[in-house]
Design goal:
A five-stranded antiparallel beta sheet has the order 1-2-3-4-5. Helices cover about 35% and strands about 10% of the residues. It is an alpha+beta fold. β4 and β5 form a beta hairpin.
């Protein structure tokens, strides 16, 4: 990222007053390269809390961006890569809640974000909080940083690293917000709906959902069911295995299959017996009168027998 170098008159503050003349000159050069006023003396009205920010007002800082800055970024003094491996442990500072009052200042003209925070000391917890700040590009590239701790001029202390971890966590939280936490928006039209629909008469338009129409067309299509064929083959193999056994052990599941259920009917039900007299009784024969001689003779024989 190319930043326009603008000369800015630096006003000493309580966070830069301890710097020597050479260190103050280096800090002045850093501010001029960014083309901004000193973050320590900039009005608080320019900053907004990052907890209430949106995705557009927070840099897209991710893990590779932090590694590139803390490990591979050249030192402002020696020009060699920082290799601040110890600073990568600063995630514990952020996880322990040592990073407080995270604020962001969005410079739209420079496509730059200045973020400042308050971080506790790693050893002296009762001392006043430290005030690191970082300058980050919109795409997550860390441009510069500073802290008022003893190692702050190196631009890669643990407090700066903890601030970067806090910014990255805030960015991740904003990206993963649920739809209920975002502003109401219209749903984006699909590619299918963007295509020009042909004009049709009202009586010819089908007012059904596309998904429903798709299901109807799928249900009408004749599709073979391989699972059914596998199941029938299994029943057949099971029945054949029973026949090959010396002592057949019938499978209960075959009793429910029509092709094999006849073998499971009890013998008492299958045995055919003559119908009972109650089944042969017919009321229409109670008033029957014999007409022929043979029928009369049969009736007389029945009465004599009684």
């Amino acid at each position: 990222m190319q930043v326009e170098h603008t000369s800015v008159t630096l006003t000493c503050s309580q966070y830069t007053s301890h710097l020597s003349s050479e260190e103050l000159e280096s800090y002045q050069e850093k501010i001029n390269k960014l083309g901004i006023s000193d973050p320590y003396t900039s009005p608080q009205i320019l900053y907004s809390p990052i907890a209430a920010a949106s995705v557009d007002t927070v840099p897209d800082l991710e893990y590779p961006d932090k590694v590139n800055y803390l490990i591979f970024n050249p030192s402002p003094y020696t020009g060699k890569v920082l290799k601040a491996y110890k600073s990568t442990d600063a995630y514990k500072y952020f996880q322990s809640g040592w990073v407080q009052d995270l604020f962001v200042w969005q410079l739209e003209g420079h496509n730059l974000y200045v973020i400042k925070a308050k971080v506790r000391h790693s050893q002296r917890l009762n001392d006043p909080l430290l005030h690191p700040w970082v300058a980050i590009n919109k795409d997550g590239t860390v441009i510069s940083a500073h802290c008022n701790c003893m190692a702050g001029l190196g631009e890669a202390c643990s407090h700066i690293a903890a601030t970067l971890f806090a910014v990255s966590a805030a960015n991740s939280t904003l990206k993963n917000q649920s739809c209920t936490s975002l502003k109401c928006t219209w749903s984006q039209p699909s590619n299918e709906s963007k295509q020009a629909a042909p004009f049709e008469r009202g009586k010819d338009i089908t007012f059904t959902y596309t998904s429903r129409k798709r299901k109807e067309s799928q249900s009408k299509a004749a599709v073979s069911n391989p699972i059914k064929n596998y199941r029938l083959d299994f029943y057949k193999a099971l029945h054949e295995s029973e026949a090959s056994e010396k002592v057949p052990c019938k499978s209960a599941i075959l009793a429910l299959i029509p092709e094999y259920s006849d073998e499971y009917i009890p013998k008492a039900v299958k045995f055919k017996i003559p119908p009972s007299l109650a089944e042969l009784y017919e009321t229409e024969f109670t008033t029957y009168a014999p007409t022929t001689g043979r029928e009369r003779q049969s009736c007389y024989a029945v009465h004599e027998h009684q």
